[in-house]
Amino acid sequence: MQRPIAILDSGVGGLTVVKEVMRQLPREKVIYFGDTARTPYGPRPSDEVVRFTQEIVSYLMQYKPKMIIIACNTATAAALEDIRSMVDVPVVGVINPGARAAINQTKTGIVGVIGTVGTVRSRAYEDALKRLNPNIHVVSLACPLFVPLVEQGNFRSKETMDTVRESMEKLKDIPLDTLILGCTHYPFLSETIQEVMGTGVKLISSDNETAREMSTILQESGKLAHGPELPIHQFFCSGEPKMFKRIAQQWLGEQIELTPVVWQIPKIG
Amino acid sequence: MQRPIAILDSGVGGLTVVKEVMRQLPREKVIYFGDTARTPYGPRPSDEVVRFTQEIVSYLMQYKPKMIIIACNTATAAALEDIRSMVDVPVVGVINPGARAAINQTKTGIVGVIGTVGTVRSRAYEDALKRLNPNIHVVSLACPLFVPLVEQGNFRSKETMDTVRESMEKLKDIPLDTLILGCTHYPFLSETIQEVMGTGVKLISSDNETAREMSTILQESGKLAHGPELPIHQFFCSGEPKMFKRIAQQWLGEQIELTPVVWQIPKIG
Fold first, then answer.
1. Between B97, B133, B215, which is nearest A24 by CB?
2. pTM of the model
3. CA torsion sign, A52 to A58 to A61 to A62?
4. For residue A207, what is the nearest residue in chain B, using CA coordinates?
5. Choosing among A21, A209, A215, A258, which should be mutated to test the B contact, i.e. which has the most B CBs within 10 A?
6. Cβ of B135 under 8 Å from any chain A Cβ?
7. Residue ranges of chain A whose pLDDT lies below 50
8. CB within 8 Å: B220 and A90
9. CA separation for the pair B100, B216 (Å, rounded)
10. pLDDT digits (tens, 9 = 90+) for B246-267
11. Which of B185, B27, B23, B201 is nearest to A107 (CA)?
12. Rounded CA gap, B115 and B128, in Å?
């Protein structure tokens, strides 16, 4: 019986990380928790985010995960260190993998970060980048209008293009060559953002970079899943399950149909 | 006193990894060993490569490295597991990071690998890719004419273009979108290879990917260097030091002048 990887998020955004784990490491079993009853975490005070994250991790520990992924920028910024001291398995957030990928990518040494007001105010990306490499110049910009666009499913309209162009105006004259999408919602807008920034700017998403980093850490500690059996993933949410299930199936596509999924609403909060 | 990262190679090729460590993690101190007296490793029997690599690691252990990087495809394929069982610090090769980056990158799931005859025959990349993700389709091709071109400094001539085009003919009709440069010499030819393969194919070099993976493992184990002091790097070679020094200075550029370097020929072999 292989031990799963536990992935948690304030809602459905972390499913982007699940999709990447399924793509990059199809042998790994995932258990996912979306705290849809209490989403969004962005506007909440930091200590509340820490408490919610601790509650979810406590719940997931009964499944004996071999690793925990905090697939939410806000929860990573607020709670990563608390969760690390709480459990005895590796805990990976979405900020360090994105920072490391940006450092790998940049030639100019000038890296942009866009995120929610909370993430930008926390300076979490700036700290992560500077801790690895003090020579990196970081330019951060809050884009509070992007999450509502995504939640309306409004990825490619003229309104979206106008909003993205206007929001990112301040970055246009800065010679950055790498831009971190510091919010799990933003990859849905990546085509529009790429168009506004031009092809000379490489966009970094935390979903695939976090899955890759997870792969490194599992392999280094000899904990990669092996053998021919296909994993059975499990999804939990704290809110209304129908909508969550619909979004998850839409996002994870056929792969969900390939593996039985157990839906369950834990008592929490 | 911070502990260094030990990087070793059969010759000068591993300096590409040193350059990336200096770029991505400028706080880390590097000690490098180029076995220039016994280069190349490619045509040697596997057990000899294992013995040489063990000798170099024994030598470098006196400097109490916190991590060992085998920056040579041939030595990684032959000796990675032996070195892992020999020392009690993390040992990173160049094959897993390249494989992981390719899995992260590919959309079609079809990955090409070019390398020396020895590397391709060992199936090391194929094994590494399939271990992580059995769904990846791998196409390998030995390009024995590439190393001589690089050693002649012949990166961008018409002869080089013709040789690269002819050598890679067999890959042209395969719908791969990602190509691993499975030899530390090949990044010197990357412009020509990119021209031949077209912009639809992403090239993966092990130098930056290995440095990035090293960063992940160091951070995960809480062993990243910190503090303001600039590291003093040390370089060793087993052969004639003048040529080695010239190539290292040419490749590592001004950064070598910024930090004192100790040149030393160890008694070995």
1. B133
2. 0.89
3. negative
4. B104
5. A215
6. yes
7. 257-260, 269
8. yes
9. 13
10. 888 878 875 554 344 454 545 5
11. B23
12. 14
